[in-house]
Amino acid sequence: MSSSEAPAAVKPVPGLHEDGSPERLAIDTIRTLSMDAVQKANSGHPGTPMALAPVGWTIWSQFLRYDPAHADWPNRDRFVLSVGHASMLLYSLIHLAGIEEIGADGEKSGKEAVSLADIEQFRQLSSKTPGHPEYRHTTGVETTTGPLGAGCGNSVGMAIAERWLAARYNKPGFPVYDHDVYVLCGDGDMMEGVSAEAASLAGHLKLSNLCWIYDSNHISIEGGTDLAFDEDVGLRFKAYGWNVLHIDDANDTGAIAAALRTFRETNDKPTFIVVHSVIGWGSPKAGSEKAHGEPLGEDNVRATKKAYGWPEDKSFYVPDGVAEAFKASIVERGRPLRDEWVAMMDRYRAEHPELAAELDLLLKDELPADWDADIPEFPADEKGLASRDSSGKVLNALVKRVPWVVGGSADLAPSTKTDIKGADSFEASNYAGRNFHFGVREHGMGAVVNGMALSHLRSYGSTFLVFLDYMRAPVRLSAIMELGAVWVFTHDSIGVGEDGPTHQPIEHLATMRAIPGLDTIRPGDANEVAWAWRAALEKADRPTALVLSRQALPTLDRSKYASAEGVMKGGYVLADCDGEPEVILMATGSELALVAAAHETLKGQGVRSRVVSMPSWFRFELQDQEYQDAVLPPGVHARVAVEMAGSMGWDRYVGRASTGGRTITMSTFGASAPLAKLQDKYGFTSDNVAKVAREAMEAAS
Amino acid sequence: MSSSEAPAAVKPVPGLHEDGSPERLAIDTIRTLSMDAVQKANSGHPGTPMALAPVGWTIWSQFLRYDPAHADWPNRDRFVLSVGHASMLLYSLIHLAGIEEIGADGEKSGKEAVSLADIEQFRQLSSKTPGHPEYRHTTGVETTTGPLGAGCGNSVGMAIAERWLAARYNKPGFPVYDHDVYVLCGDGDMMEGVSAEAASLAGHLKLSNLCWIYDSNHISIEGGTDLAFDEDVGLRFKAYGWNVLHIDDANDTGAIAAALRTFRETNDKPTFIVVHSVIGWGSPKAGSEKAHGEPLGEDNVRATKKAYGWPEDKSFYVPDGVAEAFKASIVERGRPLRDEWVAMMDRYRAEHPELAAELDLLLKDELPADWDADIPEFPADEKGLASRDSSGKVLNALVKRVPWVVGGSADLAPSTKTDIKGADSFEASNYAGRNFHFGVREHGMGAVVNGMALSHLRSYGSTFLVFLDYMRAPVRLSAIMELGAVWVFTHDSIGVGEDGPTHQPIEHLATMRAIPGLDTIRPGDANEVAWAWRAALEKADRPTALVLSRQALPTLDRSKYASAEGVMKGGYVLADCDGEPEVILMATGSELALVAAAHETLKGQGVRSRVVSMPSWFRFELQDQEYQDAVLPPGVHARVAVEMAGSMGWDRYVGRASTGGRTITMSTFGASAPLAKLQDKYGFTSDNVAKVAREAMEAAS
Known about the structure:
Chain A is α/β, with parallel strands linked by helices. Chain A has three domains: 24-337, Thiamin diphosphate (ThDP)-binding fold, Pyr/PP domains (Rossmann fold, 3-Layer(aba) Sandwich); 381-555, Rossmann fold (3-Layer(aba) Sandwich); 565-700, Rossmann fold (3-Layer(aba) Sandwich). In chain A, a hairpin with a 2-residue loop joins β6 and β7 (223-224).
């Protein structure tokens, strides 16, 4: 195809469709479906699908190793639309490719993944074609994208997963994993720091199975990219260690194919292809930011169709044979590959039964029987150990039996205790390693861990809790996508001590608890940590955040207190009194032993108190009302919550101050000092807890 | 000085101190003070101060234009320690330079900013020497650093501010602003995406007053940087458009000075100096990650002092004359410059009285009289307008009278409505522009806006609320630093509609309200928006987040309802009933009109309800108990809060469910659909509000 010239008015497209080639028909079908869907929804982004249709067409029809009848084939190539706003490009491709839907139960539903009717319902309630592509919602969507840079980051995780899985499961004659990851990204992705972090890591790891195609259209929402962005992106990627290729015209499918062949032949580094395109190509708004995020308008849609040589009056028009030819181009390549793979896996099962059985579990998101058998029970210990330390022990106990639990830290593993002992580092020279060095790149780590989870690894990422701020976007996306990622956040309070307020989380616990679908667990001692890890691993379709202390916590004597298994219900009665309690003391994490001590003090003063451990509000809320009321009897109004964090959210459990609710929490940022000084300063002492408990009783009476 | 070789054991330093040069004495004083302070605190980071002491010494003694007696001189060069963990380097420099303390009242306290006694109190409660440098806490600290990349980002804002201030206030013969910004950064800074975003912007803007000195020590916490980071950082900065220089040995002060002279002579781009250093230089732990984040140990401290030719038994030792010589080197250069500047400003006041008066206000963080006189009062209007639109009108009304209100968006200005109409863009070719194009770089924008605020600009940054996730770290730091930055977040709920769950904030309001010291305001109509902007601008020592709708909101008839000035108190009674209310309806933002409608419905049903507008919880909590109880009478237990966001935090005001508390909020992520469909789906209708209000009354009774 030819030039990208962008005259002021309707673009004539000389010769287009004169030969009626399947290529041109398919590409313009993608373009017009995208225009029409946005126009009908009166909402959406037409310009990028129109510009990148030739790129999408080339990848899918000539390179992607994919069987539309088996979108869950583990060894399929991945196609990631990091420019998620261009969702109509992806929906058009899925539709034309004839991808068959796989239901939530993992079985085929018998429907098209995206029908033409679905495309006509673009951006409508419950449709298969929401504004941005949603993983689990639409078959063929490999990851949820929209927040810029997210797809780029995920793709690095997918490429890592392929390398790791290949290193573990491939055997001579059995290339179980051997696939590539293609990414379409844009100027927005390139400006975001997360893509820079992920790209630097990908270059370091020499992920030659990864190809980013960068749509350089010189347009941003505020106008030309020269307003804010004129760096040499290609040179930057060279600095990261990528192979960098350039294509002058996004319509030149021959050049695109040549570049993609170079990618396929490159074995020592990832590939970055800069493609110059014209946003809204062929429309009166071509080359303008006005083609980005709003419908073209009825008149412009007609003018554009005319320029394409397309029937102006037809909407959602797929010319005869276009879908069939496009699908055939994919099936011809992909189906034999998948069929061979399936046959090969039958032989693999015979020759490598243990690995095959392991892989079956992995692909079903299940765990081996007795996977948690080595998790220790920690003996009572007044001195105890930091929950980051007990977490390290528990992690090291469970990884032996679940080889695909892999992860690492944003350069804090010695502090977050997430290293797998005896395991190698994951490096370009050793893709079998299980310890990941993400570098000081929290946002990138989050996106990469999500990408790994998307390929069924039980991936984890760790840093200090305060640096959650750097990686909230991927943590949120792990919840939206219902991924079984585990986020390990240590140094969880003013317990950080001397590093001071920039390193002391205050609001972070509340901000995690506020994310729908994220199980935030702050265990109170080593045995609660053991159950917290069990809770995390047992759910492959829900992310869990473990919130752990820097400082030592006593290991409670469980012969005296209730079992730590209560963690599984989110909240439980740790210690009680005879008869109805006069006051309920609640705590999590490092404050659990503190309220247990206050409970003893109150007992000595003749006050009947109950201690409730509340490590996971999320899980507690999932319990039925009867259980919740048994733990927190509605009639007991004097309630004190103690947590070395902000009070936000505790009021749900303690009630209003006037009815007897109290919190001992942080209302300011912390300070740099040894922890004991801070505990005194901010009132985290058992005497103060007992005092406030009596105040609560007075207010409630 | 000489080589960086790193033998295994104690490093001999041949010839060191043989000549007893002031340079060597000063540099080793910085090193030993840093070692001793960390050792005494038994906490901290000795290695980087030891490695970078020669760099700090060179900048301060030979380049920094600074008067230690006037640390608040507006035209001083800025020194930013982005490697905030190396705080002892900065404290040592401040001490040796003899910087005089300026108190919270802006007056000199008569004390040293950092005395030797303060250094001995490193990392202790209330000391002047907290673990990481804290702005406002210690004179001489230009910005709070520690979270990696933050200082880098701030520095771009400082350099921008200098350029903007120069463009506005410099006149022929009056170089009011003409200073540079020096930054020390490390591998961690370079791995973080925020520094990449900020560096790309700085290159684009050709900020030749900005110099980053990158400490490349090849060490990260997990081990060598080759574990995760082997990109060509210098080449990357070339791609950003920076001038890149290399220094092989951090001890080579001659080479450092030569590079800094090149920086001073470069007028068309920022400068990036790669300095190869040895962490913990001269100590037995030199070149190892063990020198990074823990005390060296008593024996190693002694061995290191021996290697330096330092008295082994002396701690916190400043040899005679060292401080005096170091201070003199700064004063000799800086004092005459400041004296000239002060004299020049006297003439400036005479020749440019209006600009001088403006500058006086700016520097005192005050606003002109009648600064808000043009802010419109919006007439009642059932159709109304989006609060992002009314915000745009209010902003445009106030910027006329406060020229130093400047800001922009992360490539969303057409949507966030933050453009200043008729003003130019801030560009390399026009540093007088007031509209900033930050690019799709939310994190970078946040750090840059903070840097601008640190130079007294009333800076604002805007994006969609959901992308707060990308920039939480700088928003938090604006609160820690008590900066008057304004964060404008639009598209604040499922009101986003078709863009779907990735673009619909759910938890974000709660996560902002949880940040200590951040005033989060979600105004309910155009007149509340007007007051919200007043609230924001009136506080120069507190950040404000404005949370605004995409969709139109009715402008309430204030002849019927209470005045929108109630915003200033955070919460107020918008509409009431005769006698004691049976139920209180609370809302913010787009739900305010909804509960006002439900109030009417309930009135028709004979139910006495009160409507409370709660745009700022932060401000409401600052009111005395009497006011709070007048708005929310403790005896009224039936309370319903309505907000198109998660419920987190509302329980504080509504109380527990069993006592009559109810929320109509979001418990899941949203969905892609037109807003009206979503409002139905999730219960945001006045009928549902009325229904839930009656349920609350039943539960409370």
